[in-house]
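Exercise: predict the fold of this chain.
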Amino acid sequence: MDDSKIIELFFERSEQAIAELSDKYGSVCAKIAENILNNRQDAEECVNDAYLAVWNTIPPQKPDPLLSYVCRIVRNLALKKYHANTAQKRNSIYDVALDELIDCIPAACCVEDEAAAKEIAGMIGRFLETLDRQSRIMFVRRYWHADSIEDLSALFHKSRHYVSVRLSRVRKALKQYLIKEGVSL
């Protein structure tokens, strides 16, 4: 079903909207949550909570594109659950992905306010526009979707080494770009 028709169902307050949303984007949402949480039950809970959040926000929101809207909600809920679950623990999948970016992105203590965080996010977006399509997708899949190196190597039909080296080069280029833009790391 087309996204606009799903949104119409939400505006009509039809429960079919959630079923259609789940059919169309449920697997993508589950993958994002599972990659972050590394726990199927917690991931299912986040996806269900995301469906409720979408139900509560449409209307008045009329998101375009719907997939990005839903994925952002799932990701944010999964991150909240992740932080609650791992206060003093280490999640091998998501922490490893974040550790890879530690040299490229300033620490939270250095980003004093939301405006600075948005400015850095904009810089990262502009940096991603300079990358070739494959590198950009690989970067976003690794650091936004939290895909594993194994998942990326399967997705791109490349070796694990190739993916690791490619991501390493992108991170190095990102670091240089941010320094050039005046961000202190």
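Check your answer against the key: The first helix runs from residue 3 to 11.
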